[in-house]
Amino acid sequence: MKISIVGKGNVGSHLYNAFKEKFDTTLIDSRNPQNLNPSDIAIVCVKDDAIKEVVQNLKGKARIIAHTSGSLPMEILNSYSTDYGVFYPLQTFTKNVDLCYHNIPFFIEGNNQHTVEVLRELANAISGKVKECSSEERKKLHLSAVFACNFSNALFTVAHKLLDSADISFDMLLPLIKQTVDKLDKLSPEAAQTGPAVRNDSFIISRHLEMLQNEPKLAEIYRLITELIRDNSRNPVIK
Amino acid sequence: MKISIVGKGNVGSHLYNAFKEKFDTTLIDSRNPQNLNPSDIAIVCVKDDAIKEVVQNLKGKARIIAHTSGSLPMEILNSYSTDYGVFYPLQTFTKNVDLCYHNIPFFIEGNNQHTVEVLRELANAISGKVKECSSEERKKLHLSAVFACNFSNALFTVAHKLLDSADISFDMLLPLIKQTVDKLDKLSPEAAQTGPAVRNDSFIISRHLEMLQNEPKLAEIYRLITELIRDNSRNPVIK
User: Fold this and answer.
1) What is the pLDDT of residues A155-188, one digit of tens each?
2) CA distances from B42 to A18, B61, B64, B82, B227 (A)
3) CA of B11, closest CA in chain A: separation in Å?
4) pTM (2 decimals)?
5) Do B149 and A180 touch (CB under 8 A)?
6) Which of B94, B180, B215, B235 best tests the A interface by mutation, with the highest count of A CBs <10 A?
């Protein structure tokens, strides 16, 4: 199978590295797709708002065209190829940070059975976690990743600033953050919840809100997440 | 040195295990402190609102009395002993979940130099990360831990519910969550921030808010944390 990876950014570079020893793989600059020889599949690894322009130039050069976006529907590709799909790796890619691809979940979608099978073969070649998933489901998956990863990182930034003001290094908090995540191997996040909100410790909660009185946005985030934890502990998800 | 650990909950049990091979240590039921023989130090490991009642019964039985609360000032102990302090381990303790004590940061505070030195000796015996810290600083530390750990766990719960509605297992998100935290070994959370908010992708953000239109609390949390990320990327902390 001949694969073209289109786009030399973080996702493209990582996918190229993962594929190059297993398939006849070429990495293509998305701004110079004229170098593209005919291939069985082109996997487009560019920013969401650049996808349409890039796939325009791929017409007729690849049997299957797939994008790698978490949030865009498969159907945005329907006028560029008869076979099209999505090849979405659920991971945050940073150049020069090595990843164990085998643990990265891949979510695939195709407009026909053949496309799904090709995408599944590619994903299975590098990952142990491959799942077919509709565009609607993928949107929810992407939103869940924003909450769990982008937004929790924003809370780590809040913690960093609070610690700076007490002259304590952020590193001191890392063992606790790691333990919070390690617990999820054994417990659901609902069962793992600790802290003043879940034990309904109104005294501590009001002292914390006092400390945030000059930071109205942080105070509001504190109030809302505290309510959310209280709501969840009253209506737990039964698994 | 004779140590009494008062309170058989999660913190007390873990501290007892950590100390018992290095010091003459006794674990005492906080409801039956009459079993307490005179000791050099009593470390009180009970809930914040039970501390005063418990230390009342310790008067005269220990040279030093220390509590383990993240949020209560040291001075709540000032009428129960001439030597008093705080011995605060920054970790989430779960019974039957083993911990590597050496990596747990301990924050200590004493009302005089002798007390600080005893607390430092105890903390150094089990941990490689010991720091003296005032009650004011400890309050900020505790608040930062609530944001970084309790609240990020609440966001994992949000993700869990969203994934349930797409019939995707929460386990699929764990590699991404772990990578989000592993990045903090090398990058500050500000530098590690990814996602639609930091790249100012208004199209995705408005689609996400649409998906949350029946969940007003989640939509408001989404809006506020997105604003926070945008504010931070405009005013980064220079380290």
Assistant:
1) 999 999 999 999 999 999 999 999 999 999 999 9
2) 57, 8, 6, 13, 46
3) 13
4) 0.90
5) yes
6) B180
